Protein 1
Amino acid sequence: MAKKVLTTIKLQAPGGQASPAPPVGPALGQHGINIMEFVKAFNAQTANDMGTTIPVEITVYEDRSFTFITKTPPAAVLIRQALNIEKGSSEPNRTKVGTITQAQLREIAEKKLKDLNAHDVDQAAKIIAGTARSMGVEVAG
Amino acid sequence: MIRLAVRVAREHAELALAELLVLAPNGVEEVDVSDDVVEYAVYGAEGELPDLGDVRAAAGPALVEVRSSVVGDDWAERWREFHRPLQIGGLHLRAPWHPPAGGPEVVIDPGQAFGTGMHPTTRLCLELLQALPRERAAVADLGCGSGVLGIAAAKLGFGPVDGYDHEAESVEATVANARANGVEMGAHRWDLHRDPVPRAPVVLANLLRPLLLELAARLDEPPRVLIASGLLAHEADEVATAFAGLREDARLELDGWAAVLLRRP
């Protein structure tokens, strides 16, 4: 018989570097999950994205065992990383914080493709370009 | 502990998230409040949370509302209620609050350290450890966490046993658990990335792939026996072949995790 699901928890946590400190500890601990076991599993699965924010969805069962799936990092985080900027613009229409190249857009689009509502990389790149513009990042080309 | 929740309009949520992550580099919890609203939450004691003005500015025009609530301070301990004893081969693993089973046992209170014995990697290491011939050989438990593997080794007759971990909580937990089990086990605060690789004829390394590969590259003389885990099943081949001078003798898998037993030919 399938195990009964107690709840699902979503987190945005640094790949390969999650720790039992907040928010991971309290978010999971209050549901009775053994925090260190999640931390070990999450860090093992996300070691290739060391330090990059990874969305993770954790399914908690009644016996407090759990499974989880990770997704690709948020596009805005990848854009920030690609351009090496700390923040987006608070006035994206007036103040620009950088310029993203078509090659950078495609690279992010390829990474995000499986989590985006897009048929191909070109369409995904257009979605990423929209995110970039709303951060105050100009799109080259 | 306070939970500070920032609710933002879903259509701009990703931008707000990216900005909030600058204030909360350890990450945030995400809750789908409705079709239109997403909540991002950070946790901390009073004085540890980001400034409210900064949070509002980070959320920008997407901000719907900021609300706070108090989380009970027992969040780190609630798992204990659901923790169950476990039989692994000839060893009974239990927490101090479980009744003794009567046979050989390892009693572990992990505190804030890793290693209740429940995790598949710990279970696999304990199975491989019990498959070794019993001998009075020194053991190094790398990344010892709660000390569960080293204590089991000491109970099986290995010795002297020493544990190494970079977390102070792990060293404390190992010392306390060794004492509670009536075994001798040294515990050392150790940075396995930088400090010399501890040497012993038997090495237990329930770590993760990147650190195992790093140790494989730094090891000048391989141990007689190495039990390595913390590996996802698809990583086992790479790690098993990375240790020059050792060959794979056994491999166990459980729930997508693997442990390998490597020996000097």
Protein 2
Amino acid sequence: MMNKLIILTKALLKETSIFDFYDMQSRRKSIIRLFTVLALLTFFIVFIYNIVSTTLDVLNSIGQKEILLGMGLSISCIFMFTYGLFFTTSVFFYSKDIEYLLPFPISALKIIVSKFFVVLLYGYLTESIIAIPLISVFGLKESSGVIFWLYSILIMLVLPIVPIVASCIIVFCIMRFSPLAKNKDLFKITGGLMAIALGFGIQIAIRAIIEYNPQILMKFFNENYNIIKIMNPTADFAAKSLIYADNFQGIINILLFIGLSMIVILLFGFIGNRLYFKSIIGFTESFSKSVQISQNAYGGKLNKKHKIFTLISREFKTLIRTPDYLINCIVPNLLYPLMIPVIFFTNIISELVVYLKLNIYTEYFVLFGFCVVLFQSGSNSTAATSISRDGKDIFVLKYMPIKYKTYLHTKLATSMITGSITLLIVLIIFFIFDIPLATLGLFMIPSVMAIVFSSQLGVILDLYSPKVNWDNEWQAVRKNINPIICTMVCSLLAGLTGYVLFNIHLSANNYCILLTTVFGFLNIILYNVICLSENKIIELIE
Amino acid sequence: MIKLVNVNKSYGNVKAVNDISIELKSGQIFGFLGPNGAGKTTTIKMMTGLLKPDSGTILINNKDMKKNSIEAKKEFGYVPDSSGMFLRLTGTEYLNLVADIYDVPSNERNKAVDELSEKFDIKNVLGNRIQSYSHGMRQKLAIIGSVLHEPNIWILDEPLTGLDPKASFALKELMKQYAYNGKVVFFSTHILEVAEKICDSVIVINKGKILYNGEICHMNKSLSEDNSLEKMFLELTNDE
């Protein structure tokens, strides 16, 4: 029984993992991916560690430090539950393995449990971001003993069970009873928009935490602790077992914590066994309406166009019609103009408009406007998933008489167009606010260079390390490390450029000339790299 | 005309195609036969530019696939063995894209699509996205797309897989018509009865080597007399 379960879990994990250390060819890429993930994780852990450490000092001074542990573990559970909704959908419903697994003589329960283990592993990853720094700060600052650390390990292992089970049961119910689940595309778009809204909310929360006022935070903790405690009963037991680790109350709480989690697991086995397979049957591929074409239906439809236009039009049709691409590549560009002022500069924007109308601080508008555009276009996934998105369709494009350079040009054009959406919206907004055209021009010229730069960089990254062997479009964008690397490089470059040029104090005209020249030069280099690398395509899908 | 001269291809230490040389002349249907893993698909992929040969020359109507690949690719139409292609496009959009890439004039593409979609019975679904098509319907669409530019050479990899009897018949008729019009039809298949019925010549490949290249009637003479193609095929490949 256990042996089969382990084999199945290992196989499913290999399918969903972005790491593959068994295959020699993938090993190098997997190591780079692993280090990138670890670097990001470390960054978040250090970030949270500092926040927790400061908050603990504040709470300690008023004798309410215990509340932090309970609240922190509860927030960690809410995170795991929220991300669990997406992992559950992906592992239980989007992966194609279920079609291959069903005919095997494996019990339904084994499939459910092995898939649950895969989601649980992702749960540990989410848990580590908050729970590791939280428990570490507490343990180190309070100089806790061996029992505390022993309980901590047990809590880290068991804590994700309840939130993950909750997310699984909710997703199973939606898939089983909601009409939305019958249309995979609509479901993906709705889920994607919810994820963006969630991301947006988290960003605002992070901003609030960064600028937090200890009094407000305390008030929030006190007012909401009981509600959150009821929502996450195991987190409360876990927190108490750590707080009272040195006495009998600790043992009682840790036993209650483990016992309750085990009951929840049994409940999951019972409910999952009844819901999962019924819900998976209803979860079909998206369907399009069967339209009968009349005798003259081709009139106006099959018209000759230039092949570049046709290929770009194919790119956009695919981007818009594929929910995963729409959500990850197009929608963020439309939301950025809304998100940037809300997240970063709510007050600054209104002041900026006044200054720009008076031609004051134009130079900083040009410089930092460029930096924001470079960061934003760098985080646009369209360029860094250009080749990956095509998957096995590259095969078709390889035997057709299309120059590889033409193919790459269409990729660049598509990336630049999507990357320009935000800039265009921002320019229109500033134009409506009567910002002088000359100022907008000075901002626009280097910004276009930034978009060209990030688009070329993204295409190069994806050309050298594409993820074309996927069986689900989600993998091409979400399991692809290239957009993360592109975002990191562009953010770093934007930060460096902003810092260095701010300190040398130039006029708006000179900032515009300097940025345009430097990035124009970089763009020429990157374009030549693309042209020299066109034959990389022949190596794909060999 | 297709000409392969001393073409080789290896995957690691495994020699998939071993120094093969073949010449396919116009006006004939060629069947490409061989057991699984014999090197058929590798050969076809090299002929269509999907794979680079390690050595050797491939000429498509005297155009070198290595030196002048775009011009060489314009000469043939290709039906691949897998039917996954631009699944988010509709059938009409896919055919329009193919026609644009091959520079087919509007009136010609409309006429061809009208005629072929009728013949293969997919006219009523051309407005639907390809992702909603069955395997057979996708195969029919790939077949129509491959001949929109009326290529001189038609290369098909296992084209009958997934086709219904009516479409199989239509495809075989179209292949015959193509050869009759002086073009080259080259297709791989496992269905020996089909090869026997419609091929003018067959090429048998096993373990990357060409075992036989010629007309079926001559194959009879070189092997056991009066045998079916199936028996001759088994005799050839078992000797290896």
Protein 3
Amino acid sequence: MSVTNFINRTISLMYAENYILMPTIFQLIVLIVLYSAGMAIPIFNLGLVGNAITAHIYGAAIVVILSFFIFAAAMRGDSLKLKALGLLNVLFCIFAAFEGLFYFGGYTDPIYALMMGIGFLGVLFSSTAITVEVTQKSRHYMSI
Amino acid sequence: MALYQRSRIVPIFAGLELLSLTFLFAFGLATLLYDKFPLINAYQSALLSLHISFAMLTAFLGVALFALGTISKDKVLFYLSTANILFIGIAAAGGLLFYSSLDPIYSYIMALSFVGSFFSTTGFFFRSL
């Protein structure tokens, strides 16, 4: 089985079984970890070395991968709201990731860190919204 | 009760709270990144003042959301608005303690309880739509 085929089947399963909730909640949990690690860096003056920045970068990578899965799973369905929120999730993730890369990559102006925070807010908003939408839908599916 | 059933006032208030929280976060992060205590420049105190102003606005809107959640028939709205006002209370206490002691741990508490408040408000908004 090719990789494309495997990803296709996984995404189909995610939507068909209403499992879009699983990556979304996982994304929310990783977002909280990412945020705690990321906010600890400027608050406690930890610098861009050590545990906190490692947790932050790995968390960001996991969140971006999960956001692509959520977007793909939302696109399989017929709910326009979920599709729009999935697209918002991916776009805000990419925005925050690029701002973070600029900041980490040498442009050490604090405006990049600020924009990273705004991108985080967008991801948190869309992720929470998808969770609430899917939870409300799943009450409907419960009787089937 | 009639207020909740007839009008769209609940999502409007939740959306205003979300906007206020977004500005609160933006100015708070700017305060964290640009300000060094004691403050010497005018723009630094302006950032801190904007942060505190939006924090007060958020607290007032949080009380309004709590009232709307209490009179609504939906239990989830009530739980979410209660969680929201609790998180706002923790954040406010953390902010005031940070301002009096300048200990970074209180700033961290303020930052962490912001996530809870934003989560509850977004949930409230989409639940009430």
Protein 4
Amino acid sequence: MSLRLKNISLPLADFVLEVDVEMHGRVTAVFGPSGAGKTSLLDLIAGLRVARSAFIQLDGSVLTDTAKKFSRATHRRGIGYVPQDLALFPHLSVRQNLFYGRKAREADGPSVSFEHVLKVLEIEPLISRGVTELSGGEKQRVALARALLASPRLLLLDEPLASLDVPLREKIIPYLGRVRDEFQIPMLCVTHDRFVALTLADEIVVLMGGKIMQTGPVSDVFNFPANAEVARFVGVETLQPGRITGVNEGLATVTINRVTLTALAPATPADAVFICIRGEDVVLQRDVAVSSVRNRLPARIIAIRPEGALFRVELDAGFTLFALVTRPACDELGLREGDSITALIKTPAIHLVPR
Amino acid sequence: MTAVEWQIVGFTVWVAALSTVMILPFGLALAWALARANWPGKSLVETLITLPLVMPPVAVGLILLEVFGRRGALGGLLHDRLNLDVIFTWRAVLLALSVMSAPLLIRSARVAFEEVNPRLEQIARTLGAGGWRVFFTITVPLAARGIVGGMLLAFARALGEFGATIMVVGYMPGKTATISLAIYENVQIGEDARAYRLLAVSVVLAFIAVWGSEFFLRRKKTA
Amino acid sequence: MKKPILFTVWLVLSAVALPLRATEVTVFAAASLTDSLKEIAANYEKQSGDKIIFNFGASSTLARQIEAGAPADLFFSADEAQMDRLAKRDLIDTATRQDRLGNSLVVVVPNDSPLVINSASDLANANVRQIALADPRAVPAGVYAKAWLEKLRLWPAIEPKVIPTENVRAALAAVASGNVDAGVVYKTDAAISKRVKIACEVPRADGPDIRYPMARVKGSPQPEAAKKFLDCLASKEAGQIFMRYGFLLRQ
């Protein structure tokens, strides 16, 4: 599919949403913190909101063109929408909700079989129930099914996991993956959850403060954030200011406080940089024998906090450094607050972003 | 209660019900426009709708008399083109009841519409439903309690309407006599017993209508 | 220093003096007497210094109000029935009761009406669809009109077309507004309105005997002043005013 958003300008409470982008992925994640304008963007695409200026084209058919004062009505756009609050119709049964979009008209997108959707999302047993009797996860799947059954040519999802607790989130993501794989319907997913972006999306559009910071394949954005804000958001655990004191044969020496690190030289020469280190790239070791790792930092453990299946360890290595380790590893090493330990960081794992 | 009195009661209930049904389409449309949109002149319309609730009913009746009389703007048209008279006929009763009770319906329906989450209407549109379908399958069912409560309130008001009515009709049992007109007339001519019987019926009817209205308008616990 | 003192003295004197001088006489009178009585009262007030307060309406309504204890000094009814009603309840000073005036009935139509009504039977025609009468069950003007039509055996044909109104002036207004085809009112009323014309008069022979009795109400707040005004109403000067408005004198 190809979704073109050009000259979008929409004044919001604190900033103006300005977007100019083309999306082609099977699943595109619009990734950014809450309040960045992501929901407003979805509303514009669905035709639920009017922008000061906008040109929206989906697969060659123009949906909105403010220059020509044209905007196709929402119910004729064939764009499915699963909003954050799910908006299931409380006065209709599950079955009636599911059938709502299924009318006697030509499907805009690939036709979707009722039984197939029920099977993929495992909602057969829920059919005759009332909407208010469903649990959070069940409601999510019904809302998803309802949008799919209208045979849309594009599916919009607003924070699909936001209203669920952690164990439930891990259960729903596979369903979303199945929808991506079983039905040939492109999806545009708005989220601030890295996990969703990482597991589902082919490409990412990073939206912050109403402006697009970066677009590209998922791995590019996560491994090479374009600037400090994106890096912070994308989930780089350690982000510290530093200075490049020397560059030699593609390697840069970088100083933070009194600590020196070896990193890959950045593409554009810079003096003041941000040092980005992902928590999972920090190895904690008690006995440091000979190793290929260039950066071996003696550190003291400040705090250990659980994060899902991992532990986030806060270290003082001359600067604040975070490491993500598994529970078994933590037990094996006998990590305790106040301990001294060595932190190992491979040179390519340190990413330098010009300040 | 004599046959004539039952006839008066029957006529009153019938015309009140008819007026409630008549104001429904226009009232709901106006209530929806007030609830969902902003448009120039909106506050003027809101004020006009509230006027019959606070103006002296006889003043409203006088306005109706002027407009719908044979020499009036609308009444003249009806008389000349369609040979239809309004003033002094049952149509004037219907008119007076409608005008005086419509504001209650419109206000209740507006509140009911405002309480329907607009997100639900928007999602319905993304599912391919056009304006009318969204209105009848989503908005109205979800606002139903408030709408019905408003209708019952309007019905109760119409049952008891007097001031505007007496300006536009004479007292003719079988043709234009409502319970309130009959009570007034019978007191005038000294038929107190009849007046008290009609009073009793009036109280019972009003009680039922208002109790029913409160039942529907009472806020339901959020699901 | 002087002005406020003078003002206060004047205020006190007038407050004390007024009740001594100006007495209020409350008169409940039939609606058809509105204009004539107002003129007579205006003259009387200038001469006597008393103030006349009127309550005009259907005689039946007024009688009802007096029955309920309304503070009337005089009752001037458009028919005997309402006066008898009060007399039966011992509410009037029968010594002061006198038949003062007579009147005649006319059929009126809106002054732009093309209808031709020469006699009562014309009222039964199909082209006369609505006829305004003061409520024929109680208000004297309506009672008289009904009596007249019953005598001619036309009442059953005409009754379905009757629009009953609150009092005779309301019937007149209905005709004047053009909302009804015709009405039956007193000749004196027809003269008042410029927007109606008389279609035909009810001849004295066919018409009912219209009498306007007046009397003092027992237990009235101002018995002396009431008697004084009653005498004025019975006087020759008042009689001439009544005649100018088209009433017939019975004394």
